[in-house]
């Protein structure tokens, strides 16, 4: 009851802050000045967003002129506001509105348990764990954290990936034949995915050691990414999770498979050493002059000509259109599909600002998806590794395919942040029950889909 009362007062505080922000502008600036204020800000924002699109899609002088507009546009708006003595109004308005949004989200928030939404269960500790470690991964984390020594001291057999052309799949298969009852990897997500597929095939648990560079899979499992040695605690004091796996062709992926712009950039030899520079250099071609035209078919709908498609093992957060954030669960039984189709500066501005995403962004949660192209093969980034696959490319979800052993004590996965639903906030502020109470939202079934 106390928690419900605090949520109601937070909802009321949200509306109070929003009303105060609007009244401040109308009272101090006046109605006519307020309209001029909004119009000036809108024009400056539109110019900056359009220039950002030109910066990404052109080279040479046009790129740098567009970059100058991106910088100058907000400065011009700020100068105009300052000459009208309205800078303080804008600052106070921003603070009030930020406070209102924070209070609204807090009112709808789910109390955090620190353990995510994927339930764990007790199992016996492995008797013959087998760990594959890449000494070069993550800038040498295997050596820096003495992972091989610590794992052997806990009874694990360790294979170090040293020397050229090591067949990781054959090593894992051989370990299973020799009686291994757990497979684990200290390395990048691409190697994690390969061995995870073999563990799932044989029904043995899988252990993730966060020794890669980005460790996205470890992040979504709630593991400690700062100290990979902590992941070894699962060998002696661990629990198991049952999660889904993605399948693209005959390959497993744990995070995502990307097509179009992102896949083209990842396949560049220069990408690993200079990600930002390589991206800026290649974006004009892959966005505006791509040699291949993609076609996405999902849930009976066909999207023609998307510049980028991201298929993920479970959906990313709704506002994450690049797959750079996190997934708050890995057991919902659906793929997340994001397709970006930008036809010009207006679409780009709407996509960046979030106000016109319906025109350029397709979002689906589904069990399977097909990506085709007007070419016999397409580049694909699978968990950050560049490959080429024959078209059409089929992706599907394997619900509950993988058992993952994790430490009992770990950072965990926080609940997803609530979306700011003004209708629910209004009902909460008035003291009535919201139609969808916090924490009661379920994952959408495989057949469900939505477009944003």
UniProtKB/TrEMBL annotation:
Region (Disordered): 430-452
Transmembrane feature ranges: 9-29, 35-56, 61-80, 86-104
UniProt xrefs under PROSITE patterns: DAGK
Keywords: Kinase, Membrane, Transferase, Transmembrane, Transmembrane helix
GO molecular function, one term: kinase activity
Ranges where the DAGKc domain occurs: 124-252
Range of residues in the leader sequence: none
UniProt-listed InterPro entries: ATP-NAD_kinase_N, Diacylglycerol_kinase_cat_dom, NAD/diacylglycerol_kinase_sf
Protein name: Diacylglycerol kinase family enzyme
The species this protein was found in: Actinoplanes lutulentus
Native organism taxonomy: Bacteria, Bacillati, Actinomycetota, Actinomycetes, Micromonosporales
């Amino acid at each position: 009851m106390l928690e419900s009362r605090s949520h109601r007062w937070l909802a009321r505080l949200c509306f109070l802050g929003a009303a105060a922000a609007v009244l401040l502008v109308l009272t101090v600036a006046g109605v006519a000045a307020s309209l001029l204020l909004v119009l000036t800000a809108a024009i400056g924002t539109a110019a900056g967003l359009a220039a950002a699109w030109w910066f990404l899609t052109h080279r040479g002088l046009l790129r740098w002129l567009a970059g100058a507009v991106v910088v100058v546009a907000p400065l011009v708006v700020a100068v105009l506001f300052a000459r009208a003595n309205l800078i303080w109004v804008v600052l106070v308005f921003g603070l009030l509105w930020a406070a209102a949004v924070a209070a609204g989200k807090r009112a709808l928030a789910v109390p955090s348990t620190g353990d995510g939404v994927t339930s764990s269960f007790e199992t016996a500790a492995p008797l013959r764990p087998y760990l594959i470690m890449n000494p070069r991964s993550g800038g040498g984390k295997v050596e820096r954290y003495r992972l091989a020594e610590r794992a052997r001291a806990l009874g694990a057999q360790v294979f170090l990936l040293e020397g050229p052309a090591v067949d990781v799949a054959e090593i894992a298969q051989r370990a299973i034949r020799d009686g291994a009852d757990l497979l684990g990897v200290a390395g990048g997500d691409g190697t994690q995915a390969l061995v995870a597929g073999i563990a799932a095939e044989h029904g043995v648990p899988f252990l993730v050691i966060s020794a890669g560079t980005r460790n996205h899979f470890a992040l979504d499992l709630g593991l400690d990414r700062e100290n990979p040695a902590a992941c070894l605690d699962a060998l002696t004091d661990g629990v198991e999770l049952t999660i889904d796996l993605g399948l693209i062709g005959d390959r497993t992926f744990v995070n995502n498979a990307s097509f179009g712009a992102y896949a083209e950039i990842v396949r560049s030899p220069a990408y690993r050493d200079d990600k930002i520079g390589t991206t800026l250099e290649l974006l004009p071609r892959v966005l505006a002059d791509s040699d291949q035209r993609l076609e996405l078919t999902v849930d009976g709908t066909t999207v023609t000509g998307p510049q980028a498609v991201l298929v993920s093992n479970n959906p990313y957060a709704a506002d994450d259109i690049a797959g750079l954030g996190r997934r708050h669960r890995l057991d919902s039984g659906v793929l997340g599909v994001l397709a970006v189709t930008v036809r010009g500066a207006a679409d780009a501005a709407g996509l960046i600002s979030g106000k016109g995403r319906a025109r350029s962004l397709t979002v689906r949660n589904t069990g399977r998806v097909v990506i085709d192209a007007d070419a016999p093969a397409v580049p694909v980034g699978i968990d950050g590794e560049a490959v080429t696959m024959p078209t059409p490319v089929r992706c599907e979800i394997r619900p509950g395919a993988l058992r993952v052993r994790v430490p009992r004590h770990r950072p965990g996965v926080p609940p997803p942040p609530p979306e700011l639903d003004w209708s629910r906030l209004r009902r909460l502020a008035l003291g009535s029950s919201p139609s969808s109470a916090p924490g009661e939202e379920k994952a959408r079934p495989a057949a469900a889909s939505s477009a944003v």
